[in-house]
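Review form for a predicted model. The reviewer records the input and the model, then writes brief findings.
Reviewer: anonymous (R2)
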Amino acid sequence: MDLAVGKDIAALCGKCGDVWHVVVAIEGNKPTKVQCKQCGGYHRYKRPPSEPVPARAPKEKKVVAGKPRKSPARISVPKRDEPLVQPDMSMPVRGYAMSETYRPGERIEHPKFGQGVVESFPSPGKMNVFFEDGRKTLAQGRAVAV
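Model under review:
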């Protein structure tokens, strides 16, 4: 196929759907910009559906020198509609405060998320709480600024 600026080419027009175009710009041996003969619109070259897809060479994987990568360990918390820990019904519901500390199974009342059950402590100063909308990680045991 002999490509040159000003030559006719089959391309798909997104505006009117026509396939007859004039080449406006070429990069290497591939048309990059065309003008539709039907509606006069300019757009990037789009291969018409009747034209076969050109075969691509398979991509080569990059080899990086150094230590082999390890996938990070993922701790999966099962997504269930119930808490992982049974709520302690003998204790009253406590209001949530970042400065307070809590125990697993304790029920708390959060101003935004509502009532929840303390499930676990992923790191110091944090706790996982099961709420009706889902699990949230909240702060606990923080010092109060004076």
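Findings: The two ends are 79 Å apart (CA to CA).
Further findings: The chain has two domains: 8-44, 79-146.
Recommendation: see findings above.
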